[in-house]
Amino acid sequence: MKLILTQEVTGLGAPGDVVEVKDGYGRNYLVPRGLAMRWTRGGEKTVDSIKAARASRAVRDHDHAEQIKTKLEAQPVAVKVRAGAGGRLFGAVTVTEIAGALADASGEQVDKRTIVVTNPIKSLGAHEVSVKLHDEVSAVVALNVIPA
Question: What PROSITE patterns would the database entry show?
Answer without folding.
Answer: RIBOSOMAL_L9
